[in-house]
Amino acid sequence: MPTIIDGRKTSEQIKSEIAAQVSEIKAKGGKIPHLAAVLVGNDGASQTYVGAKVKACEQVGFESTLVRLEETVTEGELLKVVQDINQNPAIDGLIVQLPLPNHISVEKVTNKIKPEKDVDGFTPANVGRMTLGWPAYVAATPYGIVELLKRYAIETAGKHCVVIGRSHIVGSPMSILMARNEYPGNCTVTLTHSRTKNLPEIAQSADILIVALGKPGFVTADMVKEGAVVIDVGIHRVEDVSKKSGFRLIGDVKFEEVATKASAITPVPGGVGPMTIASLLHNTLLAAEGKIYSK
Known about the structure:
By secondary structure, the chain is of the alpha/beta class. Helix content is 39%, strand content 16%. The strands form three sheets. A six-stranded parallel beta sheet has the order 1-11-8-7-5-6. Strands 3-2-4 form a three-stranded parallel beta sheet, sandwiched between helices. Strands 9-10 form a two-stranded antiparallel ribbon.
């Protein structure tokens, strides 16, 4: 049986560590970290995600502000809300929940967020700093994966890491983080995507396989080397009448068959997913401490 890389358990550990730090800050009369989330419209998934983030803030003792805006809000009005939060010294971290309505430019909104408050790690300043190996707010999902590799003491130096998927949110930053000269890192990295030729053969050469393609059950056992570490970033709802909810969650990896070959693997759900909120809290704590941009 492979090692199951348990994101739920690890994220709870991180939250406990953060809560202990917040207690210390309170005891010393310091400033309590404060996260603001902006939610536009009534998208069900977005409401669930933002709700979970607000609840997590409560859990660790952070302050939080949720700004809800109508789907019909103009781009200018949203940019004004972002600017107001940028200028509010009481707020340390700011996230604007994606997706945004079609009439609003994600690039403009992201670029408006002050890099010092960009705890999602999406602004050009933070992406650039991460690429250069400077202190930065790293996007929550890649940071969560790095933290799982670290806490499970998975050896990365000299290993071949194959990343499937090149999104700006997961795949591309993941490839940079795994190649950097520190732990976890020092891998030889191959970044693959939907246009890659011989993708199954390349995947099969991976010591560490990180899958963030967004295709349910894409990676099968014949694409995985014996003893590989497999990180599944995908999450999809599939119909399942045997479940009370009427659906079950699966990843980009066919877990049951791949688990027979992997030395370690993340499950879906309960793998990478829970780590994203823990990473967001970690970044907000760093923002409150002013550590990243003071270097």
